[in-house]
Fold:
Amino acid sequence: MPNENISMRQLLVLLFTALLSPAVRVMPAETAAVAGRAGWLSTLLALPAGLGLCWVLFALFRRLPEGTGLAGACIRVFGKPLGKLLTAIYLLWGIFLLAANTRLCGLRFLSTGYRNGPLTLFLIVLLAVVLWLTYKKLPAFARAGEIFYLAIAAVLALTLLLSLPQMEAANFLPLWLEDLPAAGRSALPALALLGYGIYGVFLAGAVVRRPGDRRRAIGWTIAFCLAVTALQLVCLGAFGPGLVERMETPFFMVARGIGVRGAFERVESVVVSFWILTDLVFLGILVYACSSASRSLFELKSERTAALPVTILGLLGALFFFPDAFFLRETMETVVFAGNLILGFGVPLLLLGVAAIRGIGISCGKKTA
Structure:
């Protein structure tokens, strides 16, 4: 329905805001552990692959009618049996990501601000707000995401700017030729981070296609990689790679160093509080994507029918699937790392290849398949 459509710009704003949620956890610590002082190059080195993914997705959906999301693309390209199987894999993986990242958001919030708070209550409240946001129509969620983006962009820009005096260039420069192989390996965590973006493609069926959409996607991808690069530079410059790799959330520790004694302090509490907005958008996209996959799989009337079951499964997984924080982090660094690379980059490339081989597309104004 027209009143349930969003623009490509709104979808890109949602993805930009959402990916900042896992970025503060994945990028500074993991890339510093792999590449040391050269870790800040990781997102720049991953940028060509990210732009390549944009090209693949636009080439794929150019062959499909408007109103098709990723679930519909899987079924159209592979046929019903294989397409539904692939959609089911995305659904199960999405629920797993929802559970794991909900737990991580809760642990991060409690460890940085409310150490004695009840984790279970926070997870319930967090997903209840996510359900409330996603139970509304997609345009309402997109408008909320735009507001959240403005708030987060302001907080991020101010934090980076005020953190400049803490930086020491010796912590990330100079770089030598022997640093480049490790820097190249550090691009893999950045690619895994970008792999989360594939769940935004499930919302593509609601996007009104306009000329220049691919240019907008490329611009926002570049902007995101530059923002994460700046975030990593500030963390490395403030603490050095040896300390950053041992921290859970280096960016919030940088924010802790901002302030004037007796004037304004506890800046990290403000940053952490605002960063929950990125968590809400990130988890909301996962709920929307899983609901869209469920609609295609079970032929539901609307995504709203699946939103509550998906959220409940995510909550149960967050509460009971991960016995401790160590197991959760190991899972994120191994299983989720590989899964995001395969489902985020490998499967879209496979979809485009199969679509090209089968001749699926629009030629001379007529759809062919």
